Amino acid sequence: MTLLQIMPDGDAGDVRLRTSDPEVIAAELRRRGVVFDRWATPESLDASTSTDDLLAEYADRIGELNADGRYKHIDVARIHPDDDDPEWPAKAKGAREKFLSEHRHAEDEVRFFAGGRGCFYLHLNDEVLAVVCEAGDLVSVPAGTLHWFDMGTRPDFVAVRFFEEEDGWVGDFSGNTIGSRFPTLDELLAAA
What we know:
This protein is of the alpha+beta class. 21% of the residues lie in helices and 34% in strands. A hairpin with an 8-residue loop joins strand 1 (3-8) and strand 2.
């Protein structure tokens, strides 16, 4: 479920807004300078869809988004549970922990979720916005925005990523432990 939960940055228990209405989510994020959009997701796509086929499926939308040629690097990130791999739990934990700490990027962080889900936590002034994205959701976090990302304890998503520079995904970590004081993706979903 796509979800927006807004809380003051000093009190995760004070939920000021919680909604799964895409129009309300888009409006609230737009008011804060964050782009949120929904793209149709064909039923023919699944975890086995190749990167080339996925990019071809969304070529028109990607072309519209990148009409000015700003994004020089467009790729697909994916992670799926693999219960047959004894290393899977450690790989999943490592992948998740990379982005749980508050950080920022020198360029916009643009992600389109073609499958699965993940949660961006945006630390904007004196509030935190938890934005749970699922298949069909596109979010663009403006450059310099403090945020963190949670893919859950059992990561499962496919996301098209847009970069101006090849190393655009590299984060500048703030050292603030704020992320540890807010509900995880799993906790947000369990509260629904």
